[in-house]
Amino acid sequence: MHCPFCRHPDSRVVDSRTSDDGASIRRRRQCPNCNRRFTTVETTSLSVVKRSGATEPFSRDKIVGGVRKACQGRPVSEDDLAILAQKVEETLRSSGSAEIDAYEIGLAILVPLRELDEVAYLRFASVYQAFESLEDFEAAITVLRAGHVDHDEDDTLEDSATTS
User: Fold this and answer.
1) Residue 20 has what pLDDT?
2) What whole-number distance in Å separates Cα of residue 91 and Cα of residue 148?
3) What is the number of alpha carbons within 13 Å of residue 36 lying toward its C-beta?
4) Which residues fall within 8 angstroms of residue 50, CB to CB, at 6 or more apart?
5) Measuring CA to CA, how many Å separate 121 from each of 68, 72, 88, 150, 155?
6) How many CA atoms lie within 13 A of 19 on its CB side?
7) How many CB atoms lie within 10 A of CB 89?
8) Which tens digits make up the pLDDT trace of 79-120?
9) Class of residue 125 by CB neighbours under 10 A (exposed 0-12, middle 13-18, buried 19+)
């Protein structure tokens, strides 16, 4: 890190603190040459690799925008969309990779979207997974129904355990 005052190519870290949201680190540094102090803020970058091979910075706003279209006319609030985008970003960052394939982002969206609204999930999945026929929709609905059967059986087991 170059000193902003004398351009010396080195500095010493005096203090480090994480930001309130935990997304960045604030460091106080001191130049060994001129002894002046300055602050740096370090953030991790997450890049998206598009199908074309181009890369761009990850954007929660793009997640919200894409999912908002699928949720149009559904009882989903802006807060719900913001929380979904945060979950997606957390999932992607937990992979440990600085570059994420755009396809992986779509996969990361599907799970929380399914939990949020199944109709919006079907809409998003139909575009994202390029459904071409009614059979594709039927297969997706069958998977959703299978999830309901599992949850219904769990609820029935819980109810019978509490009444016994």
Assistant:
1) 66
2) 24
3) 9
4) 56, 102
5) 11, 12, 14, 19, 23
6) 11
7) 19
8) 999 999 999 988 888 887 889 998 899 889 998 998 998 899
9) buried
